[in-house]
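Chain A, query sequence.
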Amino acid sequence: YDFLRHNLRIVFDRRTEATHTREVFFPAGRVPENGELVRQPHLADTLRRLAAAEHAAGGTREAGIRASRDAFYRGEIAERVGGFAKEIGAFITAADLDGYAVEEHEPVAVPYRGRTLYCGGPWSQAPALAQMLRVVDGFDFGRMSEAERAHVLIETVKLCLRDRNTHYGDPNVVDVPLARLLSDVHAAELRGRISGIARQSAPPRLVAAASPDTTYACVVDREGRAFSASPSDSTILVSPMVPGLGFGISDRGLQASLDPADPNVVAPGKRPRLTPSPAILVDAEGVMPFGTPGGEVQLQAMLQYLVNHLDLGMDMQAAIEAPRWASFDAPATEDPNPAQPNLVQLESRAPETLSTGLRAAGHEVRHWPPLAAQAGAICAIRRDARSGVLRGGADPRRMSWSIGW
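Chain A, predicted structure.
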């Protein structure tokens, strides 16, 4: 499909030396065309082994899932991953896999316009969205022009992403002052700094190469239980496939810093701060999981969607399709931490008055295509608590669908 082909074109000249990767994605020595079949027999074999472990366990569904999980993180698969990692100079070992366990935490929760946003902790960038909502909760967007509203949101993004870079890191290792960052006092302080901030002197620009991107999925079941997740690993760009297993080792170490003063600095046993940031909004009327791929753009697209939907009264699909912008002022999470101070990318279908107003406020405006894939791809589901009716919204900027059954 189109976006996979786009990503394969990016990596064609960079990773063709990895024979086992090339055999899957470039079997004819070229980038496959849209509609061609990509066959992954080694990955299929791995999945069959995990399914066989589940069936062999017998007993409860939980026991089967545990057996399947252990077949991946322990034993032959883990040994082969560890051996290949050592061969290519990566850090992960079979012992790392054996010692790994998912941690369950209470989500970060903040109020917004009588609702509650739930998101992940500061091992991700997600709390920065919570910070953004705390800041913009003090503005009446209905009284602003489109340019004034966009300026406030852009400056909010810049301030909160700078907080992310200054404070966020693996909370098992770093003492993140999250209560203060989400407090009324801090929100008011940031709110007071918004006027004119775009005209600040800025450090030199640093631009990074494009990389394949995240996915996003949300589900709401018949009982109203909501699921929101951003599965993400662009392994075909920087991490070759493990021979015979059909998958690559996670490349998310790229989102750790090499700066000793950075709370996100790489260290043994420490998680890098990740960009994927799924969220769920809850109120008395129902539940709404939502999210997007897009790296540094994720939180910005999610913020614009919420303001469009909740503050401006757009329905879900209209809120998703409204013209979108993104700031690239704050240094990005991923190495080499690129920044383009004062730059705002704006979809070209936005009204000229918006471009003019943002330039007057001190932003450097450049234009994306009318529906830019780089602007993210918001998907959302809204369940009405009284009727149980589900409504979905999917972003035309990428391959997105809203499906019900």
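DSSP finds 14 helices and eleven strands in the chain. The first helix runs from residue 2 to 11.
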